[in-house]
Amino acid sequence: MSAPRRTLTAVAARAKAKAKAETPLALTRRARRINRDLAELYPDAHCELDFTTPLELAVATILSAQCTDKRVNETTPALFKRYPAAADYAAADRTEVEDLIRSTGFFRNKTTSLIGLGQALMEHHDGVLPHTMNELVKLPGIGRKTANVILGNAFDTPGLTVDTHFGRLVRRWGWTAETDPVKVEQAVAILLPKSEWTLFSHRAIFHGRRVCHSRKPACGACTLESLCPSYGEGPTDPVVAAKLVKSPTQVEASL
Length: 255
Fold this sequence. Notes:
Layout: H1 2-21, H2 24-41, H3 54-63, H4 69-82, H5 86-90, H6 94-101, H7 107-124, H8 133-136, H9 144-154, H10 164-172, H11 181-189, H12 197-210, H13 238-242, H14 248-254
């Protein structure tokens, strides 16, 4: 086992040295290489919230704040059946909504957002969810991250979804040192083709949930070791690292 570890450590050392000295062009090339590698690794990367309409996606994304996707997906079928349109949310009984979404946490604030969303859509958009960033971020419960989720997955408008996984990974890859989500989004946007933004977001989130964990990334089992200047933050022994990798079933259970 010692020889593979030494080889991987040497590769990681070269990656860190290159990252410190790389030009903007070199950074762009490395970023695009990482995106291509992630595309091969996660060819089925997708939004893990269940929805059939733009409004359903907006509602599900609002509910996903401080909540797992799995819990949201367990909650939304009954909610979507009871409130299929903006008018239904606008006229909803607050107590009833709270009871339906209670398990997602922060249910009072989320109920306020859902009823407010329905009312705003009825008042300003004839009950139809708009499809521009400027219009979406003016709606109750919808910030820039949620708007990018909606635009990219419901309207096929490219957007970068800067959640905690996304931000952690692009900083580990040395793409940016920014922590503000808007600044992170701006930094990444210049590195990748616009057409790749939505799928890259899914790929990064998939990788963050499965391999590049917050506390203990599975470095020794990561295929990006030669491109990652943060290689070594987690165990580099392949056997030890492999035990940290989450299977699709394990990820689904924790979403």
